[in-house]
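The following block was generated as part of the benchmark described in Methods. Ligand: zinc ion.
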Amino acid sequence: MVTYKCFKCKSKLKDEELKKRFVCPACGSKIFYKPRTKVKKVKAE
Ligand SMILES: [Zn+2]
């Protein structure tokens, strides 16, 4: 599952939600970006 973020209102949208129509339900924007899902953690050993 992929989570997208609306470029305009920053609301999170799931992949399946966007498949229906690529429009943000909150603000109607059509610009999305994929935020990093994995946060890199640096281990200090
Ligand atoms: Zn939006």
